[in-house]
Specification:
alpha+beta, Rossmann fold, five-stranded mixed β-barrel
């Protein structure tokens, strides 16, 4: 939350003499805390209090970084009443539409008196993750929320994206327009400024069905205000400036957008307009940085903001300094073991006799032999986590396991290894989901006929041969979880093979089972009859919810025929 507020604030007002001057650097900004990082915190009540506090400031423009999800399009009356008080006072309320790929509405962006903001990329294309639909139409606008430069807590800058980074650009432009009008002595109210931004927007020509209004055109809005040609609202106290078309673009409530797994990171829950994700900067801009020196791995480009992960890999370890190396060497000698602490077999033998020594090494998650994460065991189960890693090293040495799954949270912290390589930290608070296996053992335990086993091996090989991943993207976490225990995949393989079908393709889509605060994905397995090409194909759908650090399967697999 602190990083999100700092980043958005810098986009709005920034430092006039720094690398992030802000859209409206001479305007005043008041921060009001509307969300805390506590599990027992009532977000709804906190948001109501924040809206009331915003009303009390008397500010003409209120930027709501909060975007409360609603699949029905309805909102709690208490929340709506607090927002309507701003409307009745003539305050311009601006909020992101959210980044749930069209699977959810968000409040206050769906309210007719709120200026809803969607996200377009550098080329003006609407970003697939942006929520869109009829409830946003007529009072929305698109703005660039991709590769946005902003300030980070403690100093330095980074780049992030999402509707929550597009919305501050609209809010900042609205503040500039209000300033120009005040300087000229023009008594234009904030709601009129909002309608000018909507009405003057450039038509969205690229994938208009994914847009909520046009792309923001600040100069056009200024000309419209100075000429007095801003259209009147369709209804009093509303921002809508044109009627909805009966069969126009957008989606009805509860109609999710179907899409293939994106080639960029998903942008998270709609809770705060979709927590923005940092991006590696490939521009020539010289930026301040708070990162320590060292050789950055690809994994070091992961989010600075906390992000759940469900990674697959192997256990590794690092001895970061000579003090710990000496301590381990002495312990090995005392245990009458031959070898050096860098040898996994030696370390495994030592930890079998002295499990507490696991605290003296930096545990790693290895992917393709390279460190992906440094593990930080925290909470009351920290000793259990360390003991599991110690035991896992021994099982890897003996060949009992070949791969493991690692559920946790990427904290944004970095650790420097003995090689001077920087790797991100994966915080683990328990051993649930810390599984280890050998693929051959998995297959041997499954009651499958030879044809079904062949189908399952093809499915798992297709997944294993995919691009290495860090386990943070939602659709990847869903696949990673499903392959940790392939019993469901085995069921599909058995059924399909018994009917003469052969595995063809696998795809991942946002699930229609999504509900607020969940993150459900459908993994579709397509089977075809190799001997009868005209026969209808078979589809098996497995759904996984990755809304928590430990994913869960949703219901039983669903099947149907495809023509």
């Amino acid at each position: 939350m602190r990083e999100h507020a700092t980043f958005v604030g810098s986009v709005l007002v920034g430092d006039p003499d720094g690398p992030r001057p802000g859209i409206a650097p001479q305007c005043s900004l008041t921060f009001i805390v509307a969300m805390h990082e506590y599990e027992d915190f009532d977000t709804r009540l906190a948001y109501v209090r924040a809206l009331e506090a915003a009303y009390e400031t008397g500010a003409p423009i209120v930027h709501s970084a909060i975007a409360l999800p609603s699949q029905s399009g309805r909102v709690d009356p208490m929340v709506a009443k607090a927002a309507q008080r701003l409307r009745d006072a003539g305050v311009l309320l601006i909020s992101p539409s959210g980044n749930d790929h069209g699977t959810s509405w968000t409040f206050p962006a769906i309210a007719e008196y709120c200026l809803a903001v969607g996200n377009v990329d550098d080329l003006g294309n609407p970003v697939d993750s942006t929520n869109s639909g009829d409830l946003f139409e007529g009072h929305g606008v698109m703005a660039n929320g991709t590769r946005i430069l902003g300030a980070l807590p403690g100093g330095g800058t980074g780049r992030q994206r999402g509707t929550s980074l597009a919305a501050p650009h609209v809010t900042g432009v609205a503040a500039l327009l209000m300033s120009v009008l005040r300087e000229r002595g023009m008594g234009v109210d904030p709601m009129t400024v909002g309608r000018a931004i909507i009405a003057s927007a450039t038509p969205c020509t690229k994938n208009p069905e994914r847009c909520i209004g046009g792309v923001m055109n600040p100069v056009g809005a200024l000309e419209m205000l100075l000429e007095g040609t801003t259209p009147e609202p369709l209804e009093p106290k509303s921002l809508r400036v044109w009627p909805l078309v009966e069969d126009g673009p957008g989606l009805p409530p509860n109609s999710p957008v179907r899409f293939e797994a994106p080639d960029y990171p998903d942008e998270g829950s709609a809770m705060v307009g979709g927590p923005p994700r940092p991006e590696p900067d490939t521009s020539s801009i010289v930026e301040q940085s708070t990162a320590p020196a060292g050789n950055q791995s690809a994994a070091s480009l992961l989010p600075r903001t906390p992000k759940m992960a469900f990674a697959l890999g192997r256990i590794g370890f690092d001895i970061v300094d000579d003090t710990r190396r000496s301590l381990l060497t002495e312990a090995i000698q005392d245990a009458d073991i031959s070898g050096v602490p860098e040898d996994p077999a030696v370390l495994a033998a030592l930890m079998d006799r002295r499990p507490s020594i696991a605290q003296e090494v930096t545990w790693l998650v290895l992917r393709e032999g390279s460190p992906l994460y440094a593990v930080a065991a925290t909470g009351p189960s920290a000793n259990e986590v360390l003991a599991s890693f110690a035991a896992g090293v021994g099982e890897q040495v003996s060949g009992a396991i070949a791969e493991m799954s690692f559920p946790g949270v990427v904290t944004g912290e970095m650790v420097t290894l003995s090689s001077d390589e920087l790797v991100p930290v994966l915080r683990m608070t328990g051993i649930r989901g810390l599984y280890g296996w050998r693929r051959s053992d998995q297959l041997a335990r499954l009651p499958l006929p030879p044809a079904g086993r062949e189908q399952l091996e093809r499915m798992l090989a297709l997944i294993d041969d995919g691009e290495p991943n860090d386990g943070t993207h939602s659709h990847v976490r869903a696949i990673n979880y499903l392959v940790t225990n392939p019993a469901q995949l085995a069921w599909s393989a058995g059924v399909a093979s018994s009917e003469g079908f052969s595995f063809d393709t696998l795809s991942v889509q946002r699930s229609t089972l999504n509900r607020p605060y969940s993150d459900c994905w459908d993994i579709d397995l397509i089977f075809k009859d190799p001997d009868r090409p005209s026969r209808a194909r078979l589809l098996h759908r497995h759904s996984v919810d990755v809304g928590d650090a430990l994913p869960v399967s949703i219901g039983s697999p669903r099947t149907w025929r495809l023509s």
